[in-house]
Amino acid sequence: MAEHGLTRRGLVRIKQTETWIVLGWLFLLLSAAVAGITIALINQDWNTLWRTLTFGLLLGWSLGLFRRPLWVTIPTVIAIGALYVLLFPGGLMSKVVEVILEFIQRLPALWDAIYAGNTDLGPLTNSSKELLVSAWNITLRIQAWVAAIFSGKPAYDPIAASLTWNALVWVSAAWAGWMVEARHNVLLAATPAILLSMETLAYAGHTSFVVYLMAGSLLALLAVVQQGLRQKSWDQSKTAYPSQKGRQITFVALLITGGLVLFSAFASSLSIQKIRDWIDELRKPATEQSNDLGKSLGLIPGKTPTPDSFTEARNPGLPQDHLIGSGPELSQRVVMTVSVQNPAGPVPLYWRAFTYDKYTGDGWSSSTTEQNSYQPNQPLPSDTIPSQISIQQQVFPMEDLGGTVYAAGEPITVDLPIQAAWRSNADLFGVQTHQAESYKVNSLLPRVDEWTLRNAGQRYPDWVRERYLDLPSNIPGRVRALAIELTASEQTPYDRARAIESYLRTFPYTLKVSRPPGGRDVVDYFLFDLKTGYCDYYASSMVVLARAAGIPARLVIGYASGTYNLNSKRFVVTEADAHSWVEIYFPNIGWVTFEPTASRPELDRANRIPAGSSFQPTTPSALHSKSNGPNVWYVLGGLMLAVLLGGAWIIFREIHLNRQQEQKVAVEIYQQIKWFSQSLGISSGLDHTPYEFTALLSRHLHRLESAATLMPQLGHDLQSLMDEIVKILYRPDSSKSADNTGILQQWKSLRRKLWLVWIRERWRMLVDRLRLKESL
Amino acid sequence: LEQENEIMMNPTEIQNFAEAVINNVERVIVGKRSALELVLIALLCEGHVLIEDAPGTGKTMLARSIAVTTGLEFKRLQCTPDLLPSDETGVSVFNQQSREFEFRPGPIFTNILLADEINRATPRTQSSLLEAMGEGQVTVDGVTYPLPKPFLVLATQNPIEFEGTFPLPEAQLDRFFMRVSLGYPNFDSEDAMLQMQKVTHPIESLTQAVDGKQLSTLQQLVRQIQVTGSVRHYILDLVRATREHDALGLGVSPRGSLALFRAAQANAAIQGRDFVIPDDVKQMAVCTLAHRMTVNPENILGGKTTTGVLQELLKQIKVPLTDSRNND
User: What pLDDT, on a 0 to 100 scale, did the predictor assign at position A7?
Assistant: First the structure.
């Protein structure tokens, strides 16, 4: 009985479900932020941070719920946070538990002991001591870490870093919970967490789906909280609003949010190249797949070992040391000429022969490789990376090049029977052929510009991580220290690599150097003693420094581009162009060339693929629009989508309304009028009868200049529509026909007028406000 | 049923009747249209009115002019502490000639009775009057005499704190259909009254405007006004809220619910509507319910009045648009 009408506590009740929805969205938002942090950090355990987030959020939320003032909230959050961080992520909990267990175990004995006057508390004091020592240790570590930061020489301490991150997550989660519950300010609540996450992501050079998740949940949270607040204020002012409205608004908001986020997420990663590759994959007879299937069924015997012509290339030490002390006559000998099908632009193309992954301290070698034979024009496996440029080149060897196949970038097809040596799938060591003829090579070069390189992130595949970050354990400490020093202030791997590159380019170039003394680390020798040298030294140093700074890098040998002969339209490559250089791996981009050698011109990456230049990529990947920054079309597309969804919703509503029962239609119209008057600032309570409300609205409309002069009929129209509505609502035997055309027609004409009034009113208010500002 | 439908063909009949009565009476009682309407509603609902007012505000004139306008019989009963029940109902007198007891009807046998200052009569007299009001008949010496129809009692009451009165108990108050307060006229109305009465009192020139015999038909007609489920539940919400209210010692009785229901019907009728809307309920709530409730002693000191509580409740209770219970 009491559920109807008035209860003793009054009519305004806050719905529990809404609270849970808000909490859920907030949790999603914060989880996304924490996920962003974990992606960007080394060694940060998602579980711990997530738990911290949960507890922090709940604490902040409950403090907000019980309306604790700020001066209670802040110390509570800090105190509990410090305790929590030390106990759980800090690992002191087990020690505390030990002490407590010890204490409980000893309790009877303790009692006896005290009673007997004999106080042997040895084990208890021991475990307490242990706890104190652990706590002290943690404090010391944090102290040292903080001191290191302030002295300008930051060092990585996993425990201190973990505690810091947990503390940051704790504070931002508690803040978010408190802010949403106590102040209902979503933007302010989410700001610290989002900033924290974005900052770490930006530092690590990542763009992640997490960003979309955060943006999406933030929008949804805003919608839910705003709607909740509005409903609450309506409830409090006893304004009638369509009961379905809240759900409708939330639903539409979620729909639009989802649409926008999905669209923006897809828009930036859509690549026609990817789609084309996929279609190609479907069309191609799947030879490799059937091969694998065959293997698994034991049909094809394993590969017959082929004569290994890679052996001598595999452990070259310093590959180009035959250049040392060489005279000019050697350097002018033409080795090969290369014609590139597409006339070359300003990009230097380096003809690659072999890539090396293993630094030995005195030179380079390759890990074990597996040789596979390929038919002419049979494609070599490669990483499917969108936005690569394919280059077709014809190489005319002028000397015996030992059967090595040269190509700019990753070779894909060669029109000769070849053997390719692989360290692993898509990790090519080099390609060799037995036929000393000219050959055509199709190869892939990564399409790069600084923006994409900066945003490539650090999600390296396992094979890259294992092989190309590896350094021998006896690398001198000062080499590592130098690497950290050079890269400490740079945010993305690309910038760090550039920092190393430009540092090395300050070293003077010379071929007149002695070989490094035995037992000395080549890189250490070059960096700190020699400080001058030739390409091997530069390239080796850069690879080692890059790996020490956490950037996957490898040494590549081959020839530099040579000189371009305009008559023959070929690159003429001489022995002097023999070169070593560096390639650095970027996720989803591939191996990108770096040039640390001072004698070679710097690579101009910003203009590597100038738009509209003669260097046209041959694949449709040109259609893949560059994703530099927000594209106007995507924004417009998103807006269009939102408008379309909104329009569809309105049309759906109209149709729906037409089919409703007469009484429902009347209620809906009445509530829409109420809603409208609310937006004009006329608050009408739930205790108002339709006529009372009409009188209020008419009086207000009458006062409005725009309504009174422009539409003298407005009040009359409103009254007659309301008469209809009242008749439908309160006259039991009024015809219950489903024909609503009359009342709907009336409503539509009134609605048009009300909208006009509304727009003019809003406009007038805006102008008034501006005038007020002016006069102030 | 046929007949009912025929009656319903003219929903404006009551409106016209009310218009005529009120316009006529307004020639005497200036600027009191809403109070006039209330009295008329009580008349249409076969209810009785308690007029609570200071002396000299026109209570007698109101009763008299309604009587003249409708052509109904009017009598006046001045209540004093020594008034006996037989003084109002009448007595059986021994007729010397016929050697029989003969009933001499008291002033109660009339259409419109003005019981002036009812709280000055002793409780015994009050209760016999109220009994007559409730049952529409009088029993003297074992013989039951029906009262004429229509029968309307307008009881006036001076404010309770005056010396030498017997305040009406709650149970007796509940028998009144509504309580009306005329109040002082505003400046213009009082000015108009002074001018009108310069030479003669306008009641002297007042003539009958409607046929009072019509009233019983109209009373039947009022009962045909439709009340939808949502409005009925609105009334019940209000009544229930008075029973659960903390500041009230006594809530509204079911008789009160019925009075509000009827009054709302009549209110709809005099506006020419054949269905009740929540506005009717709201307008009738205070005059039909306020005198049936009592405020707790501690809340009286806090300045709470039954009217105040009712108005507060009306602001809290949601006006229904549709019937949420669907048991219409």
Answer: 34
